[in-house]
Amino acid sequence: MGIRVAVVGASGYAGGELLRLIAGHPHLELAVATGFAQAGATIGSVHPHVRSFRDVVLAKTEAAAVGDADLVFLALPHGESAAIAAQLPETMKVVDLGADFRLRDPAAWSKYYPGAHAGTWTYGLPELPGQRDRIASATRVASTGCYAVTVVLALAPLIAAGVADPDDVVVVAASGTSGAGRSAKQHLLASEVMGSLSPYKVGAHQHVPEIKQASGARTLSMTPVLAPMPRGILATVTAKPLADADPRAVLQEAYSGEPFVQVLPEGQWPHTASTFGSNAAHLQATTDVDSGRIVVVSAIDNLGKGAAAQAVQNANLMLGLPETAGLAVDGIAP
Amino acid sequence: MGIRVAVVGASGYAGGELLRLIAGHPHLELAVATGFAQAGATIGSVHPHVRSFRDVVLAKTEAAAVGDADLVFLALPHGESAAIAAQLPETMKVVDLGADFRLRDPAAWSKYYPGAHAGTWTYGLPELPGQRDRIASATRVASTGCYAVTVVLALAPLIAAGVADPDDVVVVAASGTSGAGRSAKQHLLASEVMGSLSPYKVGAHQHVPEIKQASGARTLSMTPVLAPMPRGILATVTAKPLADADPRAVLQEAYSGEPFVQVLPEGQWPHTASTFGSNAAHLQATTDVDSGRIVVVSAIDNLGKGAAAQAVQNANLMLGLPETAGLAVDGIAP
Amino acid sequence: MGIRVAVVGASGYAGGELLRLIAGHPHLELAVATGFAQAGATIGSVHPHVRSFRDVVLAKTEAAAVGDADLVFLALPHGESAAIAAQLPETMKVVDLGADFRLRDPAAWSKYYPGAHAGTWTYGLPELPGQRDRIASATRVASTGCYAVTVVLALAPLIAAGVADPDDVVVVAASGTSGAGRSAKQHLLASEVMGSLSPYKVGAHQHVPEIKQASGARTLSMTPVLAPMPRGILATVTAKPLADADPRAVLQEAYSGEPFVQVLPEGQWPHTASTFGSNAAHLQATTDVDSGRIVVVSAIDNLGKGAAAQAVQNANLMLGLPETAGLAVDGIAP
Amino acid sequence: MGIRVAVVGASGYAGGELLRLIAGHPHLELAVATGFAQAGATIGSVHPHVRSFRDVVLAKTEAAAVGDADLVFLALPHGESAAIAAQLPETMKVVDLGADFRLRDPAAWSKYYPGAHAGTWTYGLPELPGQRDRIASATRVASTGCYAVTVVLALAPLIAAGVADPDDVVVVAASGTSGAGRSAKQHLLASEVMGSLSPYKVGAHQHVPEIKQASGARTLSMTPVLAPMPRGILATVTAKPLADADPRAVLQEAYSGEPFVQVLPEGQWPHTASTFGSNAAHLQATTDVDSGRIVVVSAIDNLGKGAAAQAVQNANLMLGLPETAGLAVDGIAP
C-alpha cells in the first residue's frame, strides 16, 4: 500500500499537475483532493486529462479534509496556505506550493504581499548547497516559486563562486500562461495572448526577494513577460563578471551530480519545449562579446520544476523515497 | 536486464517519442537507435528533450545496425520500411510505424502510394475485435496510421453494430504539425502555420483505404486540415443512422474494458490537449438535431496513440508484457 | 466632413474591429462609441491597438447616446439589439451585427435562442443574388453571422444551380477564439486553448437556421470547433452532387465580379491566415474521389467578413459609398 | 498615375508585406516585383494573401528588372543588396531593407558579417533627431534592422538626454518567427517553435553595432529570443540612471509630435499584438524599485516598423509624399 498524500487546492493548474504526477508515482497514493468553488465536482470534469482519477470527487478545501494523510500538498493562491497549515498536526508533513512561507525577512514579505508574514519554512530547492538534507529532515517545506527556481539555478553558483557580481543582476524572464493561474481574466484570454508578448509588473515583481534570498543577489532588475504558450519559463540572467572564469564550467561543476539540472553541451541553448512535462531545468552560459557580461539562460516547465514536480521532488526527500521517483527527466517535444 | 529494442529511424518526431517512451519504460532497454542524415549525431543534439539518452550516438539506418535486438521499431518515411524489413531475420519481432504493410488490397496501395505493394502484416490496433490476440502472437505488426486510428476508433463499433450507415461517412480531421514530419518545408514553417488553418490533400487522402479496411466504411469523404498546434488530432466523424440506437452507448459498450480508449461522460466533448503525451483516445457521440446524422468526435495525440505510444502498446503485447507498461493514460495539460 | 457613424457596443472584439475600420475609412467619421461595463473608459485603454481614437471616451450604451449619427452599428451580445433598435428613429440607418433580426422564421429563432423573436431585417450578405440592391435601399440591415457567411458563400451557388443536394449537407467549421467573444471564461483562457482543438455545441448549433435560410440547405449537420488561433474560420462543406458539374466552375461564375469573394486557382486551398484583417473570403472546391461528394473549403476572418468588415460593406451600400471603401481585399500574413 | 516602385526580392516575408502596403498605398504603384527561386511564379501563388496582385508574375532578381521605376525597395538577404545597388543609376531612389549599408564602421561590419563592407547610406530612422530631413533629401537610404529600431527608439532619447548610462545597457528582445525569414529550416518549423521560447546568437548578435551606432550606447549586452508567434518584437531595455529624471517623461517629450512612436499612458505596458500590421512603436518606461535601473519596454511589428512599413515611411519622405501615406498607426488585434 502506498504512502497517502492529500492535494489541497486541486482545481488549479499546479493542482492538476500534482494529480497527474501522483497517478503515475510508484509510491504515492491519492488520499484526498480538495477544491473551493469546484468542491463536489469529479476530477474528470475539472481536469479532463487526468483520467486516472476521473471519478474521484473533490472534497471541500479545509484542514479537516486531509484526515490522516502522510503528506499534504498545499496548492492554494498566495496567502491562503497559512490558515490551513496552522490547523494541521505539527508532525504532519506539508509541502506548500505557495509563497507564504518562503521568505525569511518579514519586511520583504510586506513590501510585495498583503497580510502579515506567516513564517518561514525550509526552502524547497534541493539543488542548493546543503538544502537536500534540510528538506529530508523537515516536516514543513516551502517549495520554490516558478520564476525563482529558474533564476536561482542560473545564478546562485556563480555568485557563490565569486564569479558573478551580486550587485548588478539583470533578469528578463518570460513565462507561459499557466503560471498566471486558471481564474478567468480578460487579459489571459486566448484571443489576447496568442500572437502577443506582454510584460507585466515591470519594475516591481513579488518574486524579487525570494530570488535575492536564495541566489545571493543584492540588487536585481527583474522583468517578467507573458508569452503565448501554455507552459515554460525562459530566463535570461546577466551579471557583471568578478573573476576571469568560464561561467559554464562553474555551473557544470555545481550540477554535475544532479539528475534534474543539466548544463547543456557548449553551443546548445535551452528551449522551454525540451523541459515540457518534466522536472528538468536546462542551463547554458556564455560571456557577451560586447559588454563582457555573463549571460546565463535557464529553461524549465513552470508547472514542473517550477511547481508540481518540484513539490513532488521535495516530498520524495521528506518521505525517504528515491528523489527521482515518479518524476521525468525527459521533456515531451515537439 | 531489460528487453532490448531498436529504433530504426530515430531522428524524426515519432522516433523521438519512441525514445522518450523507451527511456521511461520499466521493461524495455534501448539497444540501438539509427538515423539517416543524422547518423553519428548524439540523441542529445537531435532530440534535446530526451536527456536520458543524451550521449547515445545514432547508428546508420541499415538492417545490420539492429544486431540481435529483441524487437525493432521501424519509424521510417512511408515506403522505406519494406527494404529494411526484408533483411531482418524472420523470427525477429518488428513493429512498423509506416504505411508499407497496413493494407490488404494491393490496388488500394497503388492508388495512393508510389512503388509496389510490400505485403500485409497484422494490423496493429488492439482495440478492434479479436485483434489483441492476433497482435500478441505476431512477429510482424503494422501499427496504425494517425488519422486512421482516430477515425476507426470512432466508427468501427457503430458500423459493426449496424447503427451507422457505411455508405455515407463524412470525416473532417485536423492534425497538429508533428504529423507532417520533421523535414524542413516552407509550408510547415511556424510563420506559415501559426494563426492559420489549412486543408490539404482535399478529395484524395492516402489514409482513406486504411480507414475503410479497418472500420468497415464503404464510401468515405475525408478532409484533413493542418492546425496551429504541435500535436493532436481531432476527428469529426458523421454517418447516417441505420437504426434507432444511441451511438454513445454503442461506443461505451465497445470500449468498456479498454484502458486507453475512453468514452467521456455525456455532454463532455474531447479536447486534443487532454490526450497530449499519452496513449489515450477520447470519444464522444451524439445525434445531430437537424440532420439526424450520428456525430462522433475523437481526439488523440498523433505521436501517442497515433504513432509511438500505439507502437509500444503493440510491442508490449508481442513481448508478453502488460499492455499498459510504460504508457500514460493521463494526458498533460494545460 | 465625413458621414458620422456610431458604434454601440464598442468594447468587444467586433466593436474594436469596427473602430479600427472606421479610423481608416475615407468617408466615415466616428460620432460616438459606447460600452456597458467599460463606459467612461478611453478607447486607448479598452483597445490598445486603436491608437487613432485613444482619447475618445466610451459613452454608456443606450439609444440616446447615438444622437443624430447617420448610421449606427450595433455590436451587442445576441438578444440585446432589439431593445436599443426599437428606440432609434425609424429613418436612422442601422446595421446590426447580432443575431436578433437575421431569421425570418420565429420558430427557428425560438429553437435556438432565449426570448421572443424580434423581427426580420434585410439580410446583409451582398453577394447573394439580388441582395446588394436590397441592402442599398434598406434602413435596417442584419449583418451575417460569422459561421453563416463562411458556409453560405460556399454552398448557396451550388444549391441554386442544382449541383449540390440540399438534403445531406455536412459542415465542420473551425473558428479562432475571437468568435467566442471577450468575456472572461475559463474555457477560453489561453492555457486551455493553445495546443488544443475542441468541438462545442455539437449536434445543435444556433447558426444552423441562418445557414439553411440563406443557403437553401434543407438538412444540415454542422459541427463547430474552437481552434488555437485568435481569428479566422475555416469551413469544410460537403454535399452530395445532383448533377455532373464542376463545383469550382459554379462558384467561379457566381463570384466572378465580386471584389471580396475569391475562388482560388485550381489546386490552391484556402488558409485562414490569408484573409486576416481583411473582408476577403477564399474558396476552393473539388469532388472527393472515394465518395463522390462535393467538398468546398471556405476561409474568412471571423472579425472581418464574419463581422465588422462585412458590416462596413453593408454600411457602404446603405450610404451610397463605394462598396469597397475602407475595406481590405488583401489579408495580412504571415 | 502613381509613382512607380519596384520590389526586388518580393518572395520573402518583408517583400510580401511591401507588396501589401503598396497595394493599399494611395500614391504608389507597383512597377515590378522580382524573385530568385520564385521568378516566373505569380504573386498569388507566392503570397496568397496579396490578392490585389494575384496575377502579377515575379521577374528575375537582377538590376535590369527594375527598369525606370521611380524608387526601388531592396528586400534581399543580408549581403546581397550591394551588388544590385551598384548597377542602378545613381539618381534612382533606393531603400534597402538589408544590413549592407547601415553601418558607418567597416570594422563593425567585418566583426559580424561575411564579405567586404559595401558602404554607408543615410540611416533610415526618421524619428532620430535631424534624420527626417536627411532621409528626405537622400537618394539612398538604409532602412533600420528590426531589433535595432525596437531598441534604438527606447534608448536613444535617454542617452541623448544624459539620463541613461551608455556603458551598461542590457537588452533582452524576443521576436516572432517571420524575423527569421522564409527559408525552410528545421528549427523554424511550427512543430519546433510552437509552445517554446528559444534564445539564439547569445553573446554575439549582429545587430549590436547598429544599435550602438544609432542609440549612442557604448557597451551593450543583447540577447535575442525566438518566440512562438508569427510577428512582433518586444524589447526590454535596461540601463543605469545617470540623473534623477523620469525616463517616461524624456521619451514622451522626444516623441510628442511623432505619428508612429507612442509613449503609452502611465501604467499601460506595450503588447506586440497592438502593433500588428502597423507602422506603430509602443513604448513605456519606469524605474525598477530594487535595482534603480531604468527599464524601457518597446514593441513593434517586425515586418511593420521593423521592415516593410518603415521602408515605406522612408520612401514617402524621399518622394515628398505625406510621411504617413499608406501606413497604419492602428494595429490589428486580437
Largest interface: A-D, 56 and 56 residues
Shape call of chain A: globular
Q: Quickly give the structural class of chain A.
A: alpha/beta
Q: How many beta-strand runs of chain A?
A: 14
| Helix/strand order of chain A, N-terminal first | EHEHEEHEHEHEHEHEHEEHEEEH
Taken as a percent bin, the fraction of beta residues of chain A is 15-25%
Quaternary structure classification: homotetramer
Share in helix of chain A: 25-40%
Ranges of chain A where pLDDT stays below 50 over 5 or more residues in a row are none
Mean pLDDT of chain A: 97
Radius of gyration of chain A: 19 Å
Tally of DSSP helical segments of chain A: 10
Spatial strand arrangement across the major sheet of chain A: 3-2-1-4-5-7-6
Largest pleated sheet of chain A = 7 strands, parallel
Active site (chains A, B, C, D): 146
EC number (chains A, B, C, D): 1.2.1.38
Domain Semialdehyde dehydrogenase NAD-binding (chains A, B, C, D): 4-136
Catalytic activity (chains A, B, C, D): N-acetyl-L-glutamate 5-semialdehyde + phosphate + NADP(+) = N-acetyl-L-glutamyl 5-phosphate + NADPH + H(+)
